[in-house]
Structure formats: C-alpha cells, structure tokens
Amino acid sequence: MEKQPILATRRLLLRAFDPGDAREVQRLCGDYAVAATTLLPYPYPDGLAEVWIASLREGIERGDAAAFAVTLAGEGGLIGGVRLRIDTDHARGELGFWVARRCWGRGYATEAVRAVIEYGFSTLGLHRVHAHHFSRNPASGRVMEKCGMVYEGRLRHHVRKWGVYEDVDLWGIVREPPPHGEAQIPSPLRRTPV
Ligand SMILES: CC(C)(COP(=O)(O)OP(=O)(O)OC[C@H]1O[C@@H](n2cnc3c(N)ncnc32)[C@H](O)[C@@H]1OP(=O)(O)O)[C@@H](O)C(=O)NCCC(=O)NCCS
C-alpha cells in the first residue's frame, strides 16, 4: 500500500497486508493458541480474513489505522501482524499484535512492535501509544515492557471472552519531548561527518 512504507528491522520486513494474505491469516489466526488470548473468533470463519484485510486498508486510507504484516526478511513468509488504531484528535494509537504459534519465543513480536511504535512516533506524529492484554497473558505484557511501555493498571472484568469476564492490563508509552533546543536546529546543520 502506497500510503504506508515497508519497515525493515534486523530480521523482519513489515509491509501492508495484501488481499493475497487472507488464506494465511485465516490459517495462523485460526490457531486456538492465538484465538485464546485475543478477541478473535474460534474457529476462524471463512471470509473473515478478506473482510479484515479490506477494513485495514480502508483505515490506512482514512488515516485512522496503520497495519503491518510481519514477514521474515529473506524468505518473506507471513508470521504475524501489528496494527495501530489511531485517534487523531488525541494523537494516540492503540496497538494490537499477534505472532504465529510456531514462531513464539524468538523475540519477533518485540522486534515488530518496537518498529511500529517508532513509526507511530516519528512518521505518524503520535504522542502516545497504548495497548492492553488479558491479565492471564503475561507474554504480551512482557513484549510491551521490552518495547519501553509502562504498566498503567488493570481493568477488572473489562472483557467477556467466550462467556468469561476477563481482567485486562493496560500499558502505554508517551513520546519524550526532544532535548531542549534540538527541534530548532535547522536540518542543514546536521552534516554527516566526512
Ligand atoms: C504475545 C505474543 C505476541 C508474543 O510473541 P513472541 O514473538 O513470542 O514475543 P517475544 O518473543 O518478542 O517476547 C515474549 C516474551 O514473553 C516472555 N514470556 C513468554 N511466556 C511468558 C509467561 N507465561 N510469563 C511471562 N513471560 C512470558 C518470553 O520469555 C519473552 O520475554 P523475554 O525475551 O524476556 O524472555 C504471542 O504469544 C502471540 O501472538 N500470542 C497470541 C496473540 C496475543 O496474545 N497477542 C497479544 C494480544 S494483546
């Protein structure tokens, strides 16, 4: 998608979702282990991935979403997704993310989420990024912590998942103002050393 750049990290390429990703999204998000700690339905119904990808693309066009398919650099296989729901009035974005079960525990979520937070601050001009996760899903909280987010509290029984009320933990990160005076330095003064 033209409105959104490709983000490259050490091991990953983050690109826009494409309608051709639908089958793989359905397969990976159709994993019970991924559905169990998100608001995804289980089993994952036919057609939902197509609708979801189309809605992300519309959100990017409107400017109220950023959404990246997480792929392995080199081989290019889809292994996850990271999205920001953007509230432009408040210059804030809400993060959501998932990684394919077979790839858990290798630092991929952390690497991808860090890149998207940086994109949100530096390119989208966000002031705050926030997220929440089921309190029983500490791996997600750990990803947020490793990305510099700060624990902001717990909402009790905030979500009903499969008929059970669940607590959720809140995390956030606020863009630090630049060091005094830095914003005034005209860019031509930032010369590359020869
Ligand atoms: C949560 C999720 C994205 C993590 O992905 P990942 O690629 O495995 O994450 P990372 O490898 O970058 O980091 C995971 C961290 O959680 C830690 N962790 C894993 N299980 C844990 C547990 N039960 N308790 C505490 N920490 C745990 C890991 O040790 C690692 O931290 P470390 O680097 O300090 O060792 C992945 O499990 C997932 O997609 N789950 C299903 C969807 C979901 O829950 N999404 C988040 C919704 S908000």
From TrEMBL:
Its protein name is GNAT family N-acetyltransferase
PANTHER family in the record? GNAT FAMILY, PUTATIVE (AFU_ORTHOLOGUE AFUA_3G00765)-RELATED-RELATED
Q: Sorted alphabetically, which InterPro entries does this protein's record hold?
A: Acyl_CoA_acyltransferase, GNAT_dom, N-acetyltransferase
Q: Which residues form the N-acetyltransferase domain?
A: 12-171
PROSITE patterns on file:
GNAT
